[in-house]
Amino acid sequence: MGELSLDGGLRGVRGALPIAVTARGNNIRKLIVPEVNAREAALVEGVMYTQSHSLIEVVQLLNSGNGILPVKVDTRALLETSQKFAVDFGDVRGQQTAKRASRSPRPAATTC
Fold it and tell me: In Å, how far are 11, 21, 53, 62 from 5, measured between CA atoms?
């Protein structure tokens, strides 16, 4: 899964986590993912992930199994680091509408 660039490189894509969940649900047990998506996709257990930088690496892997190891992620450490934010909307001066929108659900549309 990924985006193939014109130079043959694999670019990351949005939604690696739901793609990995869907793959597992459809009994797909192996995925090749771009390097930037490897940690996110590896959060889903039951699927073996191999990261790649380019289409050439993917072809070599499929032809020979060229020694690329599956991605393993310490999910506990990853979740702990992802929960720390240096900034908060509460630190912003002014912009009351923007700060309020970030904390409350979007109001229902009204009809005339």
Answer: 7, 25, 11, 19
| Residues in CB range of 31: below 8 A, 6 or more apart | 1, 20, 23, 41, 47, 48, 49, 50
Token pair, residue 47, equals 């699927």
Confidence (pTM):
0.54
Tell me: pLDDT of 98 over 70.
Answer: no
SS3 95: coil
Which residues are 48's β-sheet partners? 30
| CB of 53 closer than 8 Å to CB of 10 | yes
